[in-house]
Amino acid sequence: MRSKSFSSVVKKYKAVLLDSYGVIKNHHGVIMGAANTIEKLRADGKLIRILTNDASKTAAKQVEQFRRLGLKDVVEEEIITSGMMAKHYLQSKKTKGLIAYLGTPAAAQDILDAGMSTIHISEVNGDNIDSIGAMVYLDDEGFDWNKDINRSLNLLRHRSIPAVVANSDQIYPVSRNEVSIATGGIAKLVEATLGREFIHFGKPDSQMFMHAFVQLNAEKKIEKSDILMVGDTLHTDILGGNKFGISTALVLSGNTRTANVKVNIKATGIIPDFICDSIAT
Q: Strand order of the sheet with strand 118-120?
């Protein structure tokens, strides 16, 4: 499959779903040319949603970060995070008791904003363990890796409660050639150790795509054939878009690189409709 310019690919679509890290921004800041592309998409009347598996910040905090990076027109309604999906699940289940979480207090803000009470996993002990109603994996920061992952494991050994993973990403890039273990990777370790199935939110699962689809149709009539999902990761962005039945474009500005794109597609069997160097092309 040959690389095409993003500008030629996106022409026929009415709505564009963009991954955040690796598509719009990276560890340096906004990816070169991404801001201009987003500006042109708006000028052309295309609806935009940013779908991110980053559960470490609320949509409002994501907007603040984008604006600090120079993307002044991004609004809260355009951002859909995996943390939001986890919050909706906990609300719908009317979860009783404290929500124990692994991550930073900022990552737990969505849950707090929904009126639920939280407790950091480091504070769970024999005196309060029976009051825990769910365990949520939110972020790969804000806890002691030597102690708190084990605390979450032992909580789930002793309590038959839902275990929710708000970010299914197993790794994320920290530089051009290096990655770090993400929340999904931590949760996967605990899942495998316990032999349990956790409840996962974020791409590639369908909840975020359905949420975006409903939102878009609240603005104007949109069919699935009108939507393009743009991402840098086969297992999340592209697989999720494919499963939801929308067109997908893999960009080579993040997790997937030109040198290994063909091998990765062949090895995974996850095939995007298009490949582009970046959204700036």
A: 118-120, 98-102, 132-137, 163-165, 199-200
